[in-house]
Structure formats: structure tokens, C-alpha cells
Write a structure and sequence with these properties.
The structure is a single chain. By secondary structure, the protein is mainly alpha-helical. α4 crosses α10. Helices cover 60% and strands 5% of the residues. The chain has a 3-stranded mixed beta sheet. It has 2 domains: 47 residues; 181 residues, no CATH class.
């Protein structure tokens, strides 16, 4: 029936008379030009279709599996529970609280953080050790949460996959679930994992910074926690190998501070006074 309706629409758009023979319309389905037009219309609809939330979550889980295979979580249950408690509270302050949010600290000396589509967020041990208080941790988590809320990584993956993104994503999800019918490679997971080395668009990073301070303030944290962590990173020597990847994939801390200062002005000063650090920062065991 859908094909019949599509053929009828095509006929009407091609200048067919308002009154037409129904059998002629059915026969038109086998016409090569009609088949071609129908195929173009189908591709246009597929290209305009958004990735479903279920697909988004599956993609994120697949990417997280790859990342954790290379850098497993720090074996400290108290640390992981602490970070998840803060992250989940911050995620509740956003318009996507229903996602299956998960947070973790990976056993990696490099300084970095990464958000996967669907709500999985990982920060490295090297970055965690740079934090001086819970507000700085909250600021960075809120920045990463903002990427998920705005679907920055998802859009980047879609762009990397090109015109066949919908089929590639569907194939990746099917393979992840063990489907015997899936024939496509895990292009969606590969594209997502490659974002680690390539990074997001600079405007996405600036937007996540702006959103992050707001989310932190909503959660009762000092919105200048992110500013504090960026100041710490700005003091790190550029030649330090531990920050090489972060500096490659993110705008410089100095530029991010400049952009944040211009965006915030004095609007959040009152929150800075009221959002005192809770003083319960979990110190990572050596």
C-alpha cells in the first residue's frame, strides 16, 4: 500500500491529470523512471531521519567497550561510586535525565575526558589527579554531559560516516547484538572511537564549556569549578606528554578561558558566592 501511495504521489507531481486510471497507476510502479524517483525519495527520507535514542545508546556502549578495553577502570569502587553520584546528580539538571548515564575513571596517566553518545562519560586518572576539589570535578563532568545533551559526538559520527550513516549505524547496532543477518562492519563504533584522536569541532567545545558552568550552577556547585580546572591545565607545560592528546583535540585552555569569560561576564558571580565547594573531595589512592 505504501508503494501504491508513493506511486500515486509521484504521478501527481509529474503533472498527471487529477482524474486518472487506478490500474495505470499500478502499472506505473514497474516503470524505470518511477522506480528511480521512488528510490530517490526513499534515500531523501532516510538521510533526514534522526538516529533513535536506542541507537544512540547502543553506539555509545560499543565505543565505551573499545575504550575500556584499552584503558580499564581504576580498581577503586569508592572512587567510581563517588564520581557516578556527582555525575548522575548533574545529569538530572539537564533536559535528558532519562538516559542511562554512567561515569567512570579510567586507569590512564594521560589527562583527558571523553563523552560517548547515550550518556557514558569517562575521565582519566591523570585528569582526576589534577582536580583540587569537587567543584572542579563537577565542572568537567558537566562539560562532558553537555556534549551528550547536545549530541555533539553523535553528529560528528554521522558526518564521518557520510551518506550511508543510517545503514552503517543500523548494521553496527545489529552486530553488537549478535545478529546473524548483520553484514556491515562496525563503522559507527570506529568513527566514534577515532574522535579520541581527532577531537570535536572547537565550537562544540566552547558550547559545552558554556553549558557546563550552567549545569554545575543548577546542581548547587560553584560554576567557576570548570574555570579552576582550565587554569590548572593552562599552567601545565605544553611539552608534557600527559596532556599532548588533550591539547591536540581541544582548544587551548587559555582560549577556552577567554571564551568563557566573554560568555559569563558577571552573570554567574552571585552563584560563585553561594555555590561553595562541599569539601568532600575523594582523594585518589596512590
Amino acid at each position: 500500500m505504501k508503494r501504491i501511495l508513493a506511486a500515486l504521489c509521484i504521478l501527481s507531481l509529474s503533472g498527471a491529470a487529477l482524474a486518472f486510471n487506478f490500474n495505470d497507476a499500478l502499472n506505473k510502479l514497474n516503470d524505470p523512471d518511477t522506480q528511480k524517483a521512488f528510490g530517490i525519495g526513499k534515500k531523501m527520507m532516510e538521510s533526514a531521519r534522526e538516529i533513535s535514542e536506542a541507537q544512540e545508546i547502543d553506539i555509545g556502549e560499543g565505543i565505551a567497550s573499545s575504550v575500556l578495553g584499552a584503558a580499564p577502570l581504576v580498581r577503586d569502587d569508592a572512587l567510581q561510586k563517588y564520581v557516578n553520584r556527582i555525575g548522575l546528580w548533574l545529569a538530572l539538571q539537564t533536559e535528558r535525565p532519562e538516559l542511562p548515564w554512567r561515569f567512570g575513571v579510567t586507569d590512564d596517566a594521560d589527562v583527558n575526558a571523553f563523552a560517548m553518545p547515550g550518556g557514558t562519560i569517562l575521565i582519566t586518572r591523570g585528569l582526576y589527579e589534577k582536580f583540587r576539589n569537587e567543584s572542579e570535578l563537577a565542572g568537567v563532568l558537566a562539560h562532558e554531559i553537555s556534549h551528550v545533551v547536545r549530541k555533539h559526538q553523535l553528529k560528528a559520527i554521522k558526518s564521518a560516516l557520510g551518506r550511508e550513516w543510517q545503514a552503517d549505524i543500523a548494521g553496527a547496532v545489529a552486530e553488537k547484538k549478535g545478529s546473524t543477518e548483520a553484514k556491515r562492519s562496525l563503522k559507527a563504533y570506529t568513527a566514534g572511537t577515532e574522535l579520541f584522536a581527532r577531537g570535536l569541532d572547537k565550537d562544540d567545545e566552547f558550547e559545552a564549556d558554556r553549558m557546563g558552568v550552567v549545569i554545575a550552577a543548577r546542581g548547587g556547585y560553584n560554576p567557576f569549578g570548570l574555570v579552576g580546572s582550565l587554569q590548572t591545565l593552562d599552567a601545565v607545560k605544553p611539552g608534557d606528554g600527559a596532556v599532548a592528546l588533550m591539547f591536540k583535540t581541544h582548544p587551548s585552555p587559555a582560549k577556552r578561558l577567554e571564551m568563557l569569560s566573554a560568555a559569563m561576564g558577571t552573570q554567574l558571580d552571585s552563584y560563585g558566592d553561594s555555590g561553595k565547594d562541599p569539601g568532600r573531595f575523594y582523594v585518589l589512592k596512590k
